TrEMBL record:
The lineage of its organism: Bacteria, Bacillati, Actinomycetota, Actinomycetes, Kitasatosporales. The gene is purA. Its cofactor is Mg(2+). This is Adenylosuccinate synthetase. NCBIfam families: PRK01117.1, purA. PROSITE patterns: ADENYLOSUCCIN_SYN_1, ADENYLOSUCCIN_SYN_2. It comes from Streptomyces musisoli. Homodimer. IMP binds at D13, E14, G15, K16, N38, A39, G40, H41, T128, R142, Q223, T238, R302. The active site is at D13 (proton acceptor), H41 (proton donor), K139.
Length: 427
C-alpha cells in the first residue's frame, strides 16, 4: 500500500508541480488534499508549459487518476475553465474525481477575501484574493457550501441564505458594499452543477479501496509547511494544513497508510505575500535569484521575495512532517555564485538559536547566522547523476542534507521532467 505525500517544505513554490508530474507516470492516483486555486503549480513537458491551480499535477499523466479531495476548497468557475483550457490543449481530463464533501468557494467568499485585505491596509496578509480564507472560515463555522449541495436546490438556497445572513451585515455596514442576494448566488452555482456532476464521487471510499488493491497513491500538497495554519508563521499563513497530517484529513486516509513523506525544498528560499522571512535579501543577490530563478508568482504574477537557503526551516519541516526524503529543486539557479551563504541558525536578541522559535515575536527578531559554502560555475543542467555535478555542487547538496535532517533523494537541475537527478527511487 504505497501512499506517498509530496509537500512544500518552505513557503510554497518549491517545485511541487514538477516533482508530482515526474512521479505521475508511475502512480495510479494523484490527490490534492488542501488549499484551492491559491496554488500555482508549474509543469514543463517538452516545450509545453502548464500552470495548474486547482487540478492535481497528475492530470498530465495519461495513466493516472487525478483526485480533488474533501479538504480542498473548489471554485467551480475556475475548475471548469482549467478543465476546458487543458482540453483545448489536448489533455484528457475525463478521469478527474471530485469529492462531494469538498467545500465551494462562492462569489461572496471571494468578495470577503478582497475587502478584508483592503480593510487591513498595512496589516494585510497579502492573500491571493481567491476566497480561500473566508471559505475555510465558513467550513469551520458550519455555514459552508459543499459540492454535494449543488444537487439539492432547496438545501442550497437555505445554506446560502444562512451564510449570507451575517456576511451581508458586515459587507453593508462595515465595508460599505452592496448586499449579495441568495438568489443570485444560487443561480450562479446551479449554472455549474451539471457540468461538474460527472466528476463528483465518494473519493474517500475510492482511495481506500485503491490502497487495499495495492495501487500507488500520491498526495500533492499545495502551499508549504511555513504557510500551514497550525505550524506556519501565523497569521501570515494560508487557511489550511499543507503539512503531512493534512493529507489524512483532507483525503480521508489514515496515517498508517502513508509510507513516505517527501519534502520539496528549493536550494534557496522564496516567499510571496507578507510575513517574516529571516534570510530575505534586499540587494543585488536577491534580485539575481529572482531573475535567474524566474521567481514570479504563477497565480498572482507578484514578484517573489528571495533569500538564501534556511536550514532552520528545513529542519523544522523535517520534524513537523516526519519527512522521509527531500527533493531539492532549482540547484541550477545557484550556478555562478563564488560563495553561497546558508543560514544554519538564528541570532535572536543576542542568543544563538538552532531551532525555529515557537514565539512569533522571537521569529520576527531572528537574524540569520550564515555559513558560507564555495560555489561552482559549471553548467549543471545536463547532469544526470550525482557524480556529474561539480565537486562544490555535490558538497553544497551534502551540506544541506546534513543540516536538514532527511536524505536528499532527488535534485532538480532545470524545470523539465528530465532535468532531474534521481538518487534514491521514491517508489
Ligand atoms: P510549486 O507551486 O511548488 O509547484 O512551484 P511553482 O510552479 O510555483 O514554482 C516553481 C518554478 O520553478 C516553476 O517555474 C518551475 O517550472 C520551476 N522549476 C521547478 N524545478 C526546477 C529546477 O530544478 N530548476 C529550475 N531552473 N526551475 C525549476
Ligand atoms: P503553491 O501551491 C506561495 C500565500 C499568499 C499569502 C498567504 C495566504 O503554488 O506553492 P491565501 O490566498 O492562501 O489565503 O494567502 O499564502 N500563498 C502562497 N504562496 N505559493 C502558494 O501556493 C501559495 N498559496 C498561498 O501569498 O501570503
Ligand atoms: Mg506555486
Amino acid at each position: 500500500m504505497p501512499a506517498l505525500v509530496l509537500l512544500g517544505a518552505q513557503w510554497g513554490d518549491e517545485g511541487k508541480g514538477k516533482a508530482t508530474d515526474l512521479l505521475g507516470g508511475s502512480v495510479d492516483y494523484v490527490v490534492r488534499y488542501q488549499g484551492g486555486n491559491n496554488a500555482g503549480h508549474t509543469v514543463v513537458v517538452g516545450d509545453q508549459k502548464y500552470a495548474l491551480h486547482l487540478l492535481p499535477s497528475g492530470i498530465l499523466s495519461p495513466g493516472c487518476t487525478p483526485v480533488i479531495g474533501n479538504g480542498v476548497v473548489v471554485d467551480p468557475s475556475v475548475l471548469l475553465s482549467e478543465l476546458s483550457g487543458l482540453n483545448e490543449r489536448g489533455v484528457d481530463t475525463s478521469k478527474l474525481l471530485l469529492s462531494g464533501n469538498a467545500h465551494i468557494i462562492t462569489p461572496y467568499n471571494v468578495t470577503v477575501d478582497k475587502v478584508t485585505e483592503r480593510f487591513l491596509g498595512k496589516r494585510k496578509i497579502g492573500t491571493t484574493g481567491r476566497g480561500i480564507g473566508p471559505t475555510y472560515a465558513d467550513k469551520i463555522n458550519r455555514v459552508g457550501i459543499r459540492v454535494q449541495d449543488l444537487y439539492d436546490e432547496s438545501i442550497l438556497h437555505q445554506k446560502v441564505e444562512a451564510a449570507l445572513d451575517v456576511k451581508n451585515q458586515v459587507l453593508t455596514k462595515l465595508y460599505n458594499r452592496r448586499a449579495i442576494t441568495a438568489d443570485q448566488v444560487v443561480e450562479e452555482l446551479l449554472g455549474y452543477a451539471e457540468q461538474i456532476k460527472p466528476y463528483v464521487a465518494d473519493t474517500v471510499l475510492i482511495l481506500n479501496q485503491a490502497l487495499e488493491d495495492d495501487k500507488v497513491v500520491l498526495f500533492e500538497g499545495g502551499q508549504g509547511t511555513l504557510l500551514d495554519i497550525d505550524h506556519g508563521t501565523y497569521p501570515f499563513v494560508t487557511s489550511s494544513n499543507p503539512t503531512a497530517g493534512g493529507a489524512c484529513t483532507g483525503a480521508g486516509v489514515g496515517p498508517t497508510k502513508i509510507s513516505r513523506v517527501i519534502g520539496i525544498l528549493k536550494a534557496y528560499t522564496t516567499r510571496v505575500g507578507a510575513g517574516p522571512f529571516p534570510t530575505e535579501l534586499f540587494d543585488a543577490d536577491g534580485e539575481a535569484l529572482r531573475r535567474i530563478g524566474g521567481e514570479r508568482g504563477v497565480t498572482t504574477g507578484r514578484d517573489r521575495r528571495c533569500g538564501w537557503f534556511d536550514a532552520v526551516i528545513a529542519r523544522y519541516a523535517t520534524r513537523v512532517n516526519g519527512l522521509t526524503d527531500f527533493f531539492l529543486t532549482k540547484l541550477d539557479v545557484l550556478t555562478g555564485w563564488e560563495q553561497i551563504p546558508v543560514c544554519v541558525a538564528y541570532e535572536i536578541d543576542g542568543r544563538r538559536v538552532e531551532e525555529l522559535p515557537y514565539s512569533q515575536t522571537d521569529f520576527h527578531h531572528a537574524k540569520p547566522v550564515y555559513e558560507t559554502l564555495p560555489g561552482w560555475s559549471e553548467d549543471i543542467t545536463k547532469a544526470k547523476s550525482f557524480s556529474d555535478l561539480p565537486k562544490n555542487a555535490q558538497n553544497y547538496v551534502k551540506a544541506l542534507e546534513e543540516m536538514s535532517g532527511a536524505p536528499i533523494s532527488a535534485i532538480g537541475v532545470g524545470p523539465g521532467r528530465d532535468e532531474t537527478i534521481e538518487i534514491n527511487s521514491f517508489l
